[in-house]
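Ticket #4471: structure export looks truncated?
Reporter: QA, pipeline team
Priority: medium

Steps to reproduce: submit the single chain below to the structure queue and open the exported record.
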Amino acid sequence: MQHPAYSQLRPVTPSAAVVLAPNPSYAALEGTNSWVIRDPEDEFSIVIDPGPEDEGHLNVLQSAADKVALVLLTHRHHDHADGAQRFRQLTGVEVRAFDERYCIGGEPLEDGEIIAVDGITPRIKVVHTPGHTRDSVSFYIYSGDPDSSELEGIVTGDTIAGRHTTMISETDGDLGAYLESLAKLEEEGTGITLLPGHGPEGADLSEFARKYIDRRNYRLDQIRKVREERGTDLSINELVDAMYDDVDPVLRGAAEQSTRVALRYLDGKN
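Actual output as written to the record:
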């Protein structure tokens, strides 16, 4: 079974399987990946990112995950977190996030925390990876105790997608923090399966992280060059026109947002 596979549980690693939500869009690609973490012999499971508030998807997810013990959120965005309240009603379990405002009945996640739940063999390490949003975290999925078991994969939320690049929030995103998070994932993700928030999984997370870093640096160099040649008082529209040869009108807004975030980063360093 390969991506995309809607309304069914698709195994990806021995301890991680995915249910794809039916919310395709430019930003969400084929939809949001809701991850189910458990050993096949375990009685309980952990769900990461219930996804949008789509009753059909949440019912499929509940059925696939069976006895859910805990819900975790990679970050606050609606396509990952809006279904959390309804999913809690269906399962009765705590929802934990890095930002306490998005926790429901549970405590905020802590950077470096190891999540261990009775009845679930895999262990999950929480790693704060801000940049896409301030509250973004990645979840390192171990087959057992992190000190003595295999790191099977890393759930990255929207920090890294399985295809294309991702946007950085203009409200609480930060390109500097994002580049640092990507560098961490590149260093720690060599040969590790990418379990993204959108798109297909990847065999080597570090390769995805490197491509993301190179792409961001390429755009930063473009901005520096255009400003050197034409000055620093260009409008966003003028800057985007100079950087992109043929922007699809559908993608124009995304290009402008990405450029504004890059300018904030560059001007903050000066």
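Status: closed, not a bug. The export was complete when the record was re-opened. Leaving a note from the reviewer for reference: The longest strand covers residues 151-157.
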